[in-house]
Amino acid sequence: MLTFTIRRLIVAVPTLLFISLVIFMLLELAPSDPMAQVPLTVPAEVREKMRIALGLGEPTHIRFWKWLVQFFWVEPQVLIDHIFGTSFSDGKLRVLSWQTRSPVMDVVVQRIPQTLTVVGTAYVVAILIALPIGIYSAYRQYSWFDQLGTFVSMVGFSVPPFFSGVLVIVIFSVQLGWFPSIYDTTLKVTDWDSFVKQLQQMVMPVMVLALQITAQLSRFMRASMLDNLNQDYVRTARAKGLGEYVVVMAHVLRNSMIPVVTVIALGIPSIFGGAIITEQVFKVNGIGQLLITAIEANDLPMVQTLTFIFAVLIVLFNLIADVLYGVLDPRIRYD
User: In the chain, how many domains are there?
Assistant: First the structure.
Protein backbone atom coordinates (compact mmCIF):
# COMPACT_ATOMS: atom_id res chain seq x y z
CA MET A 1 0.00 0.00 0.00
CA LEU A 2 2.83 2.39 0.86
CA THR A 3 4.60 1.62 -2.43
CA PHE A 4 1.38 2.23 -4.36
CA THR A 5 0.80 5.53 -2.58
CA ILE A 6 4.33 6.76 -3.26
CA ARG A 7 4.06 5.71 -6.91
CA ARG A 8 0.77 7.57 -7.30
CA LEU A 9 2.22 10.68 -5.67
CA ILE A 10 5.14 10.60 -8.11
CA VAL A 11 2.76 10.26 -11.07
CA ALA A 12 0.67 13.13 -9.68
CA VAL A 13 3.55 15.59 -10.11
CA PRO A 14 3.67 15.60 -13.97
CA THR A 15 -0.13 15.36 -14.01
CA LEU A 16 -0.49 18.55 -11.98
CA LEU A 17 2.21 20.29 -14.03
CA PHE A 18 0.31 19.47 -17.22
CA ILE A 19 -2.96 20.66 -15.66
CA SER A 20 -1.34 23.93 -14.60
CA LEU A 21 -0.04 24.44 -18.16
CA VAL A 22 -3.51 23.81 -19.62
CA ILE A 23 -5.11 26.23 -17.17
CA PHE A 24 -2.48 28.89 -17.91
CA MET A 25 -2.85 28.56 -21.68
CA LEU A 26 -6.66 28.62 -21.54
CA LEU A 27 -6.55 31.83 -19.52
CA GLU A 28 -4.03 33.26 -21.98
CA LEU A 29 -6.42 32.54 -24.86
CA ALA A 30 -9.41 33.98 -23.00
CA PRO A 31 -10.63 37.31 -24.46
CA SER A 32 -10.01 39.24 -21.25
CA ASP A 33 -8.09 42.43 -20.66
CA PRO A 34 -6.85 43.36 -17.16
CA MET A 35 -6.92 46.99 -18.28
CA ALA A 36 -10.63 46.86 -19.09
CA GLN A 37 -11.50 48.27 -15.66
CA VAL A 38 -9.17 51.25 -16.15
CA PRO A 39 -10.97 54.48 -17.19
CA LEU A 40 -10.66 55.44 -20.85
CA THR A 41 -9.21 58.80 -19.83
CA VAL A 42 -5.95 57.06 -18.82
CA PRO A 43 -3.36 57.65 -21.59
CA ALA A 44 -2.18 54.69 -23.68
CA GLU A 45 1.42 54.99 -22.44
CA VAL A 46 0.22 54.80 -18.83
CA ARG A 47 -1.82 51.72 -19.67
CA GLU A 48 1.28 50.11 -21.18
CA LYS A 49 3.31 50.85 -18.07
CA MET A 50 0.57 49.30 -15.96
CA ARG A 51 0.68 46.18 -18.12
CA ILE A 52 4.44 45.94 -17.65
CA ALA A 53 4.02 46.38 -13.89
CA LEU A 54 1.61 43.42 -13.89
CA GLY A 55 4.19 41.30 -15.70
CA LEU A 56 2.32 41.22 -19.00
CA GLY A 57 5.25 42.56 -20.97
CA GLU A 58 7.15 39.24 -20.72
CA PRO A 59 6.76 36.22 -23.01
CA THR A 60 4.16 33.59 -22.10
CA HIS A 61 6.64 30.83 -21.19
CA ILE A 62 8.54 33.20 -18.86
CA ARG A 63 5.36 34.18 -17.02
CA PHE A 64 4.32 30.52 -16.71
CA TRP A 65 7.73 29.58 -15.30
CA LYS A 66 7.60 32.43 -12.80
CA TRP A 67 4.15 31.30 -11.65
CA LEU A 68 5.41 27.74 -11.17
CA VAL A 69 8.35 28.95 -9.08
CA GLN A 70 6.18 31.24 -7.00
CA PHE A 71 3.46 28.67 -6.37
CA PHE A 72 5.57 25.52 -5.82
CA TRP A 73 8.71 27.07 -4.28
CA VAL A 74 8.01 30.46 -2.73
CA GLU A 75 4.55 29.75 -1.25
CA PRO A 76 5.71 26.60 0.63
CA GLN A 77 8.52 28.69 2.10
CA VAL A 78 5.97 31.27 3.25
CA LEU A 79 4.05 28.48 4.97
CA ILE A 80 7.23 27.21 6.67
CA ASP A 81 8.06 30.73 7.81
CA HIS A 82 4.58 31.13 9.26
CA ILE A 83 4.77 27.84 11.18
CA PHE A 84 8.35 27.88 12.42
CA GLY A 85 9.11 31.60 12.43
CA THR A 86 11.93 31.31 9.88
CA SER A 87 12.72 33.80 7.10
CA PHE A 88 13.23 31.69 3.95
CA SER A 89 10.74 33.70 1.88
CA ASP A 90 11.97 37.18 2.80
CA GLY A 91 12.33 39.39 -0.27
CA LYS A 92 10.91 36.81 -2.69
CA LEU A 93 8.08 37.76 -5.04
CA ARG A 94 4.83 35.87 -4.46
CA VAL A 95 1.82 35.33 -6.71
CA LEU A 96 0.04 38.69 -6.53
CA SER A 97 -3.58 39.43 -7.28
CA TRP A 98 -4.04 42.03 -10.01
CA GLN A 99 -7.17 43.25 -8.30
CA THR A 100 -5.92 43.75 -4.73
CA ARG A 101 -2.12 43.74 -5.29
CA SER A 102 -1.84 41.41 -2.30
CA PRO A 103 -0.56 37.79 -2.27
CA VAL A 104 -3.17 35.45 -3.71
CA MET A 105 -2.66 32.73 -1.11
CA ASP A 106 -3.17 35.20 1.73
CA VAL A 107 -6.57 36.10 0.33
CA VAL A 108 -7.43 32.41 -0.23
CA VAL A 109 -6.45 31.51 3.34
CA GLN A 110 -8.72 34.28 4.63
CA ARG A 111 -11.69 32.97 2.63
CA ILE A 112 -11.24 29.20 3.12
CA PRO A 113 -12.66 29.01 6.70
CA GLN A 114 -15.99 30.44 5.55
CA THR A 115 -16.25 27.95 2.69
CA LEU A 116 -15.13 24.99 4.80
CA THR A 117 -17.65 25.85 7.50
CA VAL A 118 -20.59 25.81 5.10
CA VAL A 119 -19.41 23.19 2.60
CA GLY A 120 -17.91 20.85 5.20
CA THR A 121 -21.03 20.91 7.34
CA ALA A 122 -23.27 20.36 4.31
CA TYR A 123 -21.20 17.38 3.16
CA VAL A 124 -21.17 15.71 6.58
CA VAL A 125 -24.90 16.25 7.01
CA ALA A 126 -25.59 14.90 3.52
CA ILE A 127 -23.52 11.74 4.12
CA LEU A 128 -25.20 11.08 7.48
CA ILE A 129 -28.63 11.38 5.84
CA ALA A 130 -27.96 9.79 2.43
CA LEU A 131 -26.29 6.53 3.50
CA PRO A 132 -29.09 5.34 5.86
CA ILE A 133 -31.72 6.36 3.29
CA GLY A 134 -29.95 4.44 0.52
CA ILE A 135 -29.46 1.36 2.70
CA TYR A 136 -33.05 1.18 3.90
CA SER A 137 -34.47 2.03 0.45
CA ALA A 138 -32.59 -0.91 -1.05
CA TYR A 139 -33.56 -3.29 1.74
CA ARG A 140 -37.23 -2.24 1.45
CA GLN A 141 -37.29 -1.93 -2.33
CA TYR A 142 -40.55 -0.52 -3.80
CA SER A 143 -41.91 0.30 -0.33
CA TRP A 144 -43.47 3.68 0.42
CA PHE A 145 -40.15 4.75 1.97
CA ASP A 146 -38.30 3.83 -1.23
CA GLN A 147 -40.83 5.67 -3.37
CA LEU A 148 -40.59 8.77 -1.18
CA GLY A 149 -36.77 8.63 -1.27
CA THR A 150 -36.84 8.38 -5.06
CA PHE A 151 -39.15 11.39 -5.32
CA VAL A 152 -37.00 13.53 -3.01
CA SER A 153 -33.85 12.49 -4.90
CA MET A 154 -35.36 13.47 -8.24
CA VAL A 155 -36.28 16.85 -6.78
CA GLY A 156 -32.76 17.29 -5.45
CA PHE A 157 -31.27 16.43 -8.85
CA SER A 158 -33.69 18.61 -10.80
CA VAL A 159 -33.77 21.83 -8.79
CA PRO A 160 -30.63 23.97 -9.37
CA PRO A 161 -29.04 25.77 -6.38
CA PHE A 162 -29.80 29.24 -7.69
CA PHE A 163 -33.53 28.37 -7.62
CA SER A 164 -33.64 26.35 -4.38
CA GLY A 165 -31.50 29.00 -2.66
CA VAL A 166 -33.87 31.82 -3.59
CA LEU A 167 -36.85 29.61 -2.69
CA VAL A 168 -35.65 28.87 0.86
CA ILE A 169 -34.83 32.57 1.35
CA VAL A 170 -38.38 33.54 0.36
CA ILE A 171 -39.95 30.88 2.59
CA PHE A 172 -37.76 30.77 5.71
CA SER A 173 -36.37 34.31 5.72
CA VAL A 174 -38.92 36.60 4.08
CA GLN A 175 -42.20 34.81 4.91
CA LEU A 176 -41.41 33.07 8.22
CA GLY A 177 -38.47 35.19 9.39
CA TRP A 178 -36.71 32.20 10.96
CA PHE A 179 -33.24 32.65 9.47
CA PRO A 180 -31.19 35.59 8.13
CA SER A 181 -31.09 35.85 4.33
CA ILE A 182 -27.46 37.10 4.21
CA TYR A 183 -24.52 35.22 5.70
CA ASP A 184 -22.58 37.44 8.10
CA THR A 185 -18.93 36.53 7.57
CA THR A 186 -17.79 39.01 10.24
CA LEU A 187 -19.60 37.11 13.01
CA LYS A 188 -17.22 35.74 15.65
CA VAL A 189 -18.37 32.87 17.86
CA THR A 190 -17.44 33.91 21.39
CA ASP A 191 -20.45 32.87 23.47
CA TRP A 192 -23.68 30.88 23.30
CA ASP A 193 -25.68 33.68 21.64
CA SER A 194 -23.14 34.14 18.84
CA PHE A 195 -23.00 30.34 18.40
CA VAL A 196 -26.78 30.23 17.94
CA LYS A 197 -26.58 33.06 15.39
CA GLN A 198 -23.88 31.17 13.52
CA LEU A 199 -26.07 28.06 13.38
CA GLN A 200 -29.07 30.08 12.22
CA GLN A 201 -27.22 31.67 9.31
CA MET A 202 -25.74 28.31 8.29
CA VAL A 203 -29.07 26.46 8.10
CA MET A 204 -30.22 27.64 4.66
CA PRO A 205 -26.95 27.38 2.67
CA VAL A 206 -26.24 24.00 4.27
CA MET A 207 -29.81 22.91 3.43
CA VAL A 208 -29.39 23.86 -0.23
CA LEU A 209 -26.02 22.15 -0.63
CA ALA A 210 -26.98 19.05 1.37
CA LEU A 211 -30.11 18.51 -0.75
CA GLN A 212 -28.10 17.97 -3.92
CA ILE A 213 -25.44 15.82 -2.26
CA THR A 214 -28.03 13.68 -0.46
CA ALA A 215 -29.94 13.07 -3.69
CA GLN A 216 -26.81 11.82 -5.43
CA LEU A 217 -25.33 9.71 -2.63
CA SER A 218 -28.61 8.06 -1.63
CA ARG A 219 -29.21 6.85 -5.21
CA PHE A 220 -25.67 5.49 -5.51
CA MET A 221 -25.98 3.80 -2.12
CA ARG A 222 -29.32 2.24 -3.05
CA ALA A 223 -28.08 0.94 -6.40
CA SER A 224 -24.92 -0.53 -4.88
CA MET A 225 -26.86 -2.21 -2.06
CA LEU A 226 -29.37 -3.73 -4.52
CA ASP A 227 -26.54 -5.13 -6.60
CA ASN A 228 -24.98 -6.87 -3.59
CA LEU A 229 -28.20 -8.06 -1.90
CA ASN A 230 -28.73 -10.50 -4.78
CA GLN A 231 -25.24 -11.98 -4.69
CA ASP A 232 -24.53 -15.61 -3.80
CA TYR A 233 -22.53 -14.76 -0.69
CA VAL A 234 -25.60 -13.07 0.81
CA ARG A 235 -27.70 -16.21 0.33
CA THR A 236 -24.89 -18.27 1.79
CA ALA A 237 -24.67 -16.04 4.86
CA ARG A 238 -28.42 -16.32 5.40
CA ALA A 239 -28.30 -20.09 4.92
CA LYS A 240 -25.69 -20.30 7.68
CA GLY A 241 -28.19 -18.77 10.07
CA LEU A 242 -26.67 -15.30 10.41
CA GLY A 243 -29.05 -12.59 11.55
CA GLU A 244 -30.44 -10.20 8.98
CA TYR A 245 -28.74 -7.22 10.64
CA VAL A 246 -25.34 -8.94 10.47
CA VAL A 247 -25.87 -9.95 6.84
CA VAL A 248 -26.84 -6.45 5.72
CA MET A 249 -24.55 -4.30 7.87
CA ALA A 250 -21.46 -6.50 8.09
CA HIS A 251 -21.41 -8.19 4.68
CA VAL A 252 -23.51 -6.30 2.15
CA LEU A 253 -22.75 -2.78 3.38
CA ARG A 254 -18.97 -3.18 3.30
CA ASN A 255 -18.94 -4.37 -0.30
CA SER A 256 -21.52 -1.78 -1.30
CA MET A 257 -19.42 1.05 0.05
CA ILE A 258 -16.62 0.49 -2.49
CA PRO A 259 -18.24 2.40 -5.41
CA VAL A 260 -19.87 4.86 -3.01
CA VAL A 261 -16.43 5.79 -1.61
CA THR A 262 -15.47 7.01 -5.09
CA VAL A 263 -18.55 9.23 -5.27
CA ILE A 264 -17.91 10.63 -1.78
CA ALA A 265 -14.19 11.24 -2.35
CA LEU A 266 -14.58 12.82 -5.79
CA GLY A 267 -17.60 14.78 -4.63
CA ILE A 268 -15.53 16.78 -2.14
CA PRO A 269 -13.71 18.86 -4.81
CA SER A 270 -16.87 19.18 -6.92
CA ILE A 271 -18.90 20.51 -4.01
CA PHE A 272 -16.49 23.45 -3.81
CA GLY A 273 -17.49 24.24 -7.39
CA GLY A 274 -21.17 23.82 -6.55
CA ALA A 275 -20.75 26.14 -3.58
CA ILE A 276 -19.87 28.99 -5.96
CA ILE A 277 -23.54 29.56 -6.78
CA THR A 278 -24.67 29.01 -3.20
CA GLU A 279 -22.13 31.49 -1.88
CA GLN A 280 -23.37 34.05 -4.37
CA VAL A 281 -27.01 33.53 -3.37
CA PHE A 282 -26.38 33.75 0.38
CA LYS A 283 -23.48 36.23 0.18
CA VAL A 284 -21.02 33.85 1.84
CA ASN A 285 -17.60 35.48 1.59
CA GLY A 286 -15.81 32.28 0.60
CA ILE A 287 -13.54 31.09 -2.20
CA GLY A 288 -16.51 30.54 -4.52
CA GLN A 289 -17.46 34.18 -4.36
CA LEU A 290 -13.77 35.07 -4.61
CA LEU A 291 -13.51 33.13 -7.88
CA ILE A 292 -16.54 34.90 -9.37
CA THR A 293 -15.16 38.29 -8.32
CA ALA A 294 -11.75 37.46 -9.83
CA ILE A 295 -13.33 36.41 -13.13
CA GLU A 296 -15.35 39.61 -13.32
CA ALA A 297 -12.22 41.71 -12.64
CA ASN A 298 -10.02 39.73 -15.10
CA ASP A 299 -7.75 38.84 -12.18
CA LEU A 300 -5.92 36.01 -13.97
CA PRO A 301 -3.44 35.09 -11.17
CA MET A 302 -6.34 34.64 -8.74
CA VAL A 303 -8.41 32.63 -11.23
CA GLN A 304 -5.45 30.44 -12.18
CA THR A 305 -4.51 29.73 -8.56
CA LEU A 306 -8.05 28.89 -7.45
CA THR A 307 -8.65 26.67 -10.48
CA PHE A 308 -5.39 24.85 -9.88
CA ILE A 309 -6.28 24.32 -6.21
CA PHE A 310 -9.50 22.62 -7.35
CA ALA A 311 -7.43 20.39 -9.66
CA VAL A 312 -5.09 19.48 -6.78
CA LEU A 313 -8.10 18.50 -4.67
CA ILE A 314 -9.40 16.21 -7.44
CA VAL A 315 -6.05 14.43 -7.82
CA LEU A 316 -5.64 14.13 -4.03
CA PHE A 317 -9.08 12.68 -3.38
CA ASN A 318 -8.67 10.29 -6.30
CA LEU A 319 -5.67 8.88 -4.45
CA ILE A 320 -7.59 8.76 -1.17
CA ALA A 321 -10.42 6.81 -2.86
CA ASP A 322 -7.98 4.26 -4.29
CA VAL A 323 -6.37 3.75 -0.87
CA LEU A 324 -9.77 3.29 0.78
CA TYR A 325 -10.60 0.53 -1.72
CA GLY A 326 -7.91 -1.64 -0.17
CA VAL A 327 -9.23 -0.91 3.32
CA LEU A 328 -12.84 -1.81 2.45
CA ASP A 329 -12.10 -4.85 0.29
CA PRO A 330 -9.24 -7.18 1.38
CA ARG A 331 -9.26 -8.75 -2.10
CA ILE A 332 -7.88 -5.52 -3.57
CA ARG A 333 -4.11 -5.39 -3.37
CA TYR A 334 -1.69 -2.86 -4.84
CA ASP A 335 1.43 -5.03 -4.93
Answer: 2
pTM of the predicted structure, to 2 decimals? 0.73
- Domain range holding 166? 111-328
Q: What is the DSSP string of 76-107?
A: HHHHHHHHH---TTTTPPPPB-TTT-SBHHHH
Check whether residue 119 and residue 266 sit in a common domain. Answer: yes
CB atoms within 10 A of CB 39: 5
**Under 8 Å between Cβ of 289 and 276:** yes
Judging by beta carbons within 10 Å of its beta carbon (0-12, 13-18, 19+), is residue 286 exposed, middle or buried?
buried
**Averaged in consecutive runs of 10 residues, what is the pLDDT profile of the chain (335 residues)?**
73 82 78 61 66 67 82 82 78 76 82 79 85 84 82 78 78 81 74 80 82 82 82 78 76 78 75 70 76 78 83 80 68 58
Question: DSSP character for 71?
Answer: I
> How does DSSP assign 40-52, residue by residue?
TTS-HHHHHHHHH
Q: What CA dihedral angle connects 172, 177, 178 and 183, to 10 degrees?
A: 80
Q: Confirm whether 49 is domain-assigned.
A: yes
User: In degrees rounded to 5, what are phi and psi of residue 65?
Assistant: -65, -40
